[in-house]
Write a structure and sequence with these properties.
homodimer; alpha/beta; Rossmann fold; UDP-galactose 4-epimerase, domain 1; 7-stranded parallel sheet; 12 helices; globular
Chain lengths: 327, 327
């Protein structure tokens, strides 16, 4: 099988590429389990240490460039994991950039999918940011997406196109709405949710972290490891089992900032928590408070998606895998 | 005021241009009632007899051509009525054409709006075709759009962009979801709903009409006159009164095919009804049966939108205004 991963040098993209290589096989659109012969990881830049494997190739380019993505996918791509996106804060700050990457980029990928010899599978990384505004206390599979940010609007447009292209038989698409991913290693990014990782990552590295939202702010969170597993699980479920609604709320955990700080205390001690400064930032608060914090993920649970045990185990896993390396 | 009407030589576009001229004024984005100095009616073609008025200019071009629409709107457009679209049947038959006109065209108009000196008002003609699939018997303002056709998906994408551009302060946008418009004069078109006018129009002109759907098929309908009034009413409501949700289900009437044929009998007699042939067409049925037929339009009612008295009055008005001229 030939697999294309967009956003493939990003943090989640790299975890996914590694997991696919470790796994070695995927189920194709005909339901046949086949070995993975090639993974093309596409991204706008290529920096840092990348995962190396004989099957993995890295390509740098702009996914919104129709000719580029058509060339990358050629006519023999079996599956696409479409993770590339302009993150929430950046899409809010630069409307045109968000439209270009999150909408035009997704369209270019869907167009390239239509040019394949077969009907490719496509897993689209959407986001719970498609929800916003006046929301019920607990969101269900029937809660209407009413995005209040440009990022959320653009992700919902992507979901709609994935759904329509699946209905038309152009692709076999599945859109998974990701919770906020914690704990991301590395540096803060332009996502409005960046602080959610920062308030764990920086203190564990002995650094000061700013928390721009209130302690009772609730977020729907998932670990990077569980998100990677969800991408692959979404790919493997038979199309008929998935059903006509191609977008799905992923399971996660409700974590308030206060709960995350308690988990940080359990793992890193009082000294770590003392490195977090509550510094309200109205721009970030305005975005994050439109995000939902509690879900009943009945459909995803029935489809066999899983989540982390608790917030502390997420923080502990991060500390085990990353924090020691940076100290 | 300078007004741009896209789809301005179409049937509804012409009714709207005429109604705007008769009215003579509109309320601008600052709440000031101003006289209409110029109406530019944009369309892809220009055919038939067009409404003539010193204030009205006709321009032929492709709304998805960014340069063209930017030139038409220049920097001094106060209001846009965006009616141009590839209709449902055509958008289903030609995915790329629908995306180009219904999505790219809407984006080009929104981009041109952002280039205006002021913040233009924009009324977007959406459709109840944004609803589909497993629907409640009566749809409400809270029913989730789940389009099952490419046309419905493309209209919903337009709504999302109108909403986001309004939130960002680029425009003062309002999207109205039109019921099926009956009775349209002239010839059948590529809309899946074309038969709904045809089964009245053709028999009243002494011609045979095919009905591709079952007699108990229910549609949510509105007359052209009421639709035109709704566009103008949508424009005139103050932005704050409209509220943050910029898309709105318009009031209408539930009409089954059987009810429309009874209205046809009341106006045109048994001879007219005898000219309707029930000829099931699975392609049309598949599209139309995903459309909703019953709404509770609480929000629109509270905002002062109105609908026709009953199906018979719609048919009678059509016969009075059009049918005699064609006999």
């Amino acid at each position: 099988m030939k697999i294309v991963v967009t956003g493939g040098t990003g943090f989640l993209g790299q975890q996914l590429v590694r997991a696919l290589c470790e796994r070695g096989t995927l189920t194709d659109a005909n339901g046949t389990v086949r070995s993975i012969e090639q993974i093309i990881a596409v991204d706008q830049t290529q920096s840092g240490r990348l995962f190396v494997d004989d099957r993995v190739g890295y390509v740098v380019g702009d996914i919104a460039n129709v000719g580029f993505i058509a060339h990358v996918m050629a006519a023999d791509t079996d599956s696409v994991f479409h993770l590339a996106a302009v993150v929430s804060g950046a899409a809010e700050a630069d409307f045109d950039l968000g439209m270009r990457v999150n909408v035009d980029g997704t369209r270019a990928i869907l167009d390239a999918c239509r040019a394949q010899t077969g009907i490719p599978k496509l897993v689209f990384a959407s986001s719970v940011a498609v929800f916003g505004g006046d929301l019920p206390h607990v969101l269900t599979d029937d809660t209407q997406p009413t995005p209040q940010t440009s990022y959320g609007v653009q992700k919902l447009i992507g979901e709609l196109l994935v759904g329509d292209c699946t209905r038309k038989g152009f692709i076999d698409g599945r859109a998974v709405r990701l919770p906020t991913i914690v704990v991301r290693p590395g540096k803060p990014n332009a996502a409005a949710s960046s602080f959610a990782s920062g308030i764990v990552r920086e203190p564990l590295a002995g650094e000061i972290a700013a928390c721009p939202v209130d302690a009772d702010t609730a977020m729907w969170v998932l670990s990077p490891r569980a998100a990677t597993a969800a991408f692959i699980h979404a790919h493997e479920i038979p199309s008929a089992t998935w059903g006509p609604r191609r977008a799905l709320n992923l399971p996660g955990l409700t974590a308030t900032v206060a709960q995350m700080l308690e988990a940080l205390r359990a793992v890193g001690g009082d000294a770590a928590v003392a490195r977090v400064r509550m510094q309200p930032d109205e721009r970030i608060r305005a975005i994050v408070r439109t995000w939902p914090g509690r879900f009943a993920t009945t459909r995803a649970d029935a489809l066999g998606f899983t989540h982390d045990a608790d917030v502390e185990s997420i923080v502990r896993a991060y500390a085990r895998e990353h924090a020691t390396a940076t100290r």
